[in-house]
Write a structure and sequence with these properties.
The protein is α+β, with helices and mostly antiparallel strands. The protein folds into 2 domains: 277 residues, BirA Bifunctional Protein, domain 2 (2-Layer Sandwich), CATH 3.30.930; 100 residues, Anticodon-binding domain (Rossmann fold), CATH 3.40.50.800. It is built from 10 helices and 21 strands. Helix 1 packs antiparallel against helix 5. The protein is elongated.
Length: 403
């Protein structure tokens, strides 16, 4: 990502997101928004600067240890930069003292920068000290309703990864310092992954190795299958919290009997910048980036001929083509790039286009000047090269899904 100009290093574990990467990141956020809204999620934005009093109230101020960035203000008030927001959102809910059961479930989420003082930041965006996360928090009337919400969010996560055409697995996970009684991770299988996973070849049960007994070889779910080890990159984590936080903060609602009751909670995280980096990791080749189609920064790159070449007269055709594709196809509005570095050969620019991973590269050469004009179209995802008329090209690109 650094070699191709997507990100630039700043402090250890922190990066500049350069224009191309930011376009992809914004598309990913729009995809997440679509799926969160579809299950009733409402987007909020909570303070990154969190009072120590909140964390002491939940008992996590000391539990979080050195991974939490802590600071004092000029009045010696203690604060932290929020690594997660269970305390903050529960306090917000608790402040709504007349919340009726009729308004539940309530699903609040945000997409914000998070901060963790990693001892050894590594793997670029996969393990940093400052990163983007989507965190959602749910409030329900009872355990049954809370588990229904839990499953609903997990299914939405699955749809996100399916729409990105990523291989993924949902595994049993440890609740860690978040707490609760039920937890799952969403993992992208990858040889470089930090997490060790055990998967049953018989029933499909899967778990992070840290949740199982050391040396456990048989599946605890079907009792007959053997567990095989693989590795994965964690890109999502879900927790059923019960009343761990709502009890501490007196997060109450008025139930059907008109009596105050403690809300049941869940929390659900997606590593937004992790998904971006991990998808590139698992899809790319040694010499070229491959994007999930929906979040490719641009869908089409048009290459005019080299200045001064025999096909130079086709330059105007290339410019008109790039403009017309963006104007005539609603799905390609703002999605077409014209590589106007015509002092360079088409071969060099085509190599650059392959490295950057544009899903479609359209080469405008001598054949564009023929009576039956045709264009060379490189389809990066499939590896195919097609020769299409203008109408054929429009038909092909009109089917491209964008967000």
């Amino acid at each position: 990502m650094m070699q191709t100009g997507l990100i630039h290093p700043s402090n250890p574990g922190c990066f500049y997101y350069l224009p191309v990467a930011l376009r992809s990141l914004e598309k990913l956020v729009r995809l997440i928004d679509e799926e969160m809204h579809a299950i009733g999620g409402q987007k909020v934005d909570m303070p990154a600067l969190c009072s120590a009093e909140l964390w002491k109230k939940s008992g996590r101020w000391e539990l979080m240890g050195k991974e939490m960035f802590r600071l004092l203000d000029r009045h010696n008030g203690e604060y932290c930069l929020g690594p997660t927001h269970e305390e903050a959102v529960t306090e917000l809910f608790a402040s709504q003292t007349t919340m009726s059961y009729k308004k539940l479930p309530l699903l609040l989420y945000q997409v914000t920068r998070k901060f963790r003082d990693e001892q050894k930041p590594k793997f670029g965006l996969l393990r940093g000290r400052e990163f983007y996360m989507k965190d959602m928090y749910s409030f329900d009337i009872n355990e049954e309703a809370a588990l229904h919400t839990y499953n609903s969010v997990c299914q939405a996560y699955g749809r996100i990864f399916d729409r990105l055409h990523l291989k993924w697995v949902q595994v049993q996970a440890d609740t860690g310092n978040i707490g609760g009684t039920l937890s799952h991770e969403f993992q992208l299988p990858a040889d470089i992954g930090e997490d060790k996973l055990l998967v049953c070849g018989n029933c499909g049960f899967s778990a992070n190795i840290e949740t199982l007994e050391p040396g456990q070889a048989e599946c605890s779910q079907c009792q007959t299958g053997k567990l095989t080890e693989s590795r994965g990159i964690e890109v999502g984590h879900t927790f059923y919290l019960g009343t761990k936080y709502s009890q501490a903060f007196k997060a109450l609602f008025v139930n059907a009997s008109n009596v105050p009751a403690v809300a049941e909670m869940g929390c659900f995280g997606l590593g937004v910048t992790r998904i971006l980096a991990a998808s590139i990791e698992v899809m790319s080749t040694e010499d070229a980036i491959r994007w999930p189609g929906l979040i490719a920064p641009y869908q089409v790159c048009v290459l005019p001929p080299k200045k001064g070449s025999k096909a130079h007269e086709a330059t105007l055709k290339a410019e008109e083509l790039a403009q017309s594709l963006g104007n005539s196809l609603p799905n390609l509005k703002g999605e077409v790039v014209l590589d106007d570095r015509t002092q360079m050969t088409i071969g060099k620019r085509l190599k650059d286009a392959k490295i950057l991973g544009y899903p479609f590269v359209v080469v405008v050469g001598q054949t564009a000047l023929d009576d039956l004009a045709s264009f060379e179209v490189v389809c990066q995802q499939s590896g195919e090269t097609l020769f299409l008329s203008k109408d054929g090209l429009v038909d092909l690109l009109s089917t491209v899904e964008t967000i």
